[in-house]
Amino acid sequence: MRDLVAIGQPESLTLEYKEKYTAKIQTSVAAMANSYGGLILVGVTERNVDDRIIGVPEDTIVQIVNGCHQMLEPPWVPEIIPVPLPETDGRMILVVRVDPAKATRPLLIQGAAPIRLHGRNAVADRAGLIRLINETAPQALPAGLRLPPADLDTPSADFLVRTGMCVPVDASATWRPLSERGVQAFADALNNSPLHHALFRWCASIGEGGMNPFHRSGFNRARKVRLLWQGGSDGASAYPLEAVARIDLPDAYGATVSHLQVTVEVLARFRHAFGRAAPLPVARLHELIDALAAALVDDGVTEALAALAGVDPLVMPQPLSLDFLSRTDMPDLLAGNGLASVPNAGTSRGANLLADPGVDQRDPAERRTLVDSWLQQISLDAGLLGMEKVLVGFGQVRSGVGMSRWQVGQAPVQVARRVCSSRTTW
User: Fold this and answer.
1) Residue 2, SS3?
2) pTM tops 0.70
């Protein structure tokens, strides 16, 4: 929390500071709920002083709850997260998290509908109030919002891995095309993200060191962006690895738009590029999925997307789900990893997996745990046993348990070689 405050982020459309309890907190709750959501940090002053963290007593929670019940029409209470301050007399910061998807909009105070403007509250005019009453979806991420289904529609692809998220959009972004400069910033951020580095390492490991970084290619329009990354020999007729990032701003100009759809997918075409298929090492798949998720929570990527959506980076969501689709049966794709098939269990060629909303994907350890969980589900749904054991061994290699410093550096290569030592792997 101190690190967040130390950044010095000014009050904005989605962020407000309150030094102590005041009835204005309820107005800000209603305004954010009627707009794009946000955070109210109670116990933090907006004054420019050396230490902006002041803290409030615990009974401030009761004051906020009672105030929301008494002042808001209909009564509604946002999530309140207490953050204790060490070495104080029980004082804490209260993080009031306003999620428009959970509020009954519009929220009124004395018959008026507060709305949030940049760094301040205002009252919705007649047109704005009618729009709030008639809307079918809140402007922030609605509960249950899903990405469109992934599709392995490229005949030459061996498998596809995709993740993505829905980014809340400011009303001003409804009226303008996706900025060329903003899209280029997004491409530049992806080219400096963990995904770019993971894909480059993979290409180098198979002797294909050439690459074309993320750039516009294919179907691009004012409200649709497609960026392509290609790994392989320059001028090759088929690239063994490709990544595609898409941004889609739905609906027509001026219509209600609640979010940007952002997806990033990786396509492998080893059979088409080299004339043969090969099993996929779990270690390589784990690294790829981890890099996909890490890219979408990377600071540069989230800042670029927030700028395109016209919102504060603080309200940026995290990846919603993972899609993994294979041209062949999963037992064939994952063969040689020490997994055993359950007799007569059937098989699968793909999975659509939701992210645990309680996991902070910005934290590498929590993100790896999520990836472990996804891989276990993919394996079990394909009638395969043994993924837990494989992941335990992989985790020991990652952490360097019982290994010398040189062995730790060689670990990823050793894992990929060991799990599929008897067969050609990528």
Assistant:
1) helix
2) no
